[in-house]
Write a structure and sequence with these properties.
two-stranded antiparallel sheet, binds zinc ion, 5-stranded mixed beta sheet, 60s Ribosomal Protein L30, Chain: A, 5 helices, single chain, alpha+beta
Length: 178
């Protein structure tokens, strides 16, 4: 809002960056982008540990200048134990809607030594696109290894970086409504 109480049209696009990291442990399934990968490893987390959706949620929240997902869904609350991160993402989309913001496109890179997950990208993109109200063509997900370096390279962690673009839906200026 500007000083006249009318909707500002100065900023219509906003960019956001999110990053998340989780330790990996033996057993179970790896959940990334809302898709369960039978990998024999899982993310250590209070929630379902969906590192991709957490980084994406933080990118969206960052673009909207809102607190990050760890503030909105604290990991010391029992109600968040095992929480489905798709629910969290849907909650974030609701918050954006209240600010008249919607996603234009998102781009994520997953750093993971193993397993190979490229065969799951289409399902992940479909899953994310559905929650964000986007076409799968507007959701980019890719992965790299860490070339054996550091905790990611040693297979002890997964890290995701995500960037997003939001647009502000234009409102009719009140002074022009009559
Ligand atoms: Zn996380």
């Amino acid at each position: 809002m500007n000083q006249m109480g009318t909707e500002s049209a100065e900023v219509t696009l906003r960019v956001g960056l999110g990053r998340d990291v989780h330790r990996l442990a033996e057993g179970g399934d790896l959940i990334l982008g809302g898709v369960s990968v039978a990998a024999g490893i899982h993310c250590v987390a209070h929630s379902d540990g969906d590192c991709l959706l957490h980084a994406l949620a933080d990118a969206l929240l960052g673009a909207a200048s809102l607190p990050n997902v760890g503030v909105l869904f604290p990991n010391d609350l029992e109600e968040n134990r095992g929480r489905n991160s798709l629910e969290m993402l849907a909650g974030v989309v609701d918050l954006l809607g209240k600010k008249n913001l919607e996603a234009v496109n998102v781009d994520a890179v997953i750093q993971l030594e193993r397993p190979k997950i490229s065969g799951f990208f289409t399902a992940m993109k479909d899953c994310v696109a559905k929650v964000l109200g986007l076409s799968a063509a507007d959701v980019s997900i890719k992965a790299t290894t860490a070339e054996g370096l550091g905790p990611i390279g040693e297979g002890r962690a997964v890290e995701v970086f995500c960037i997003c673009l939001l647009r502000k839906r234009r409102r009719i200026c009140p002074s022009h409504e009559q």
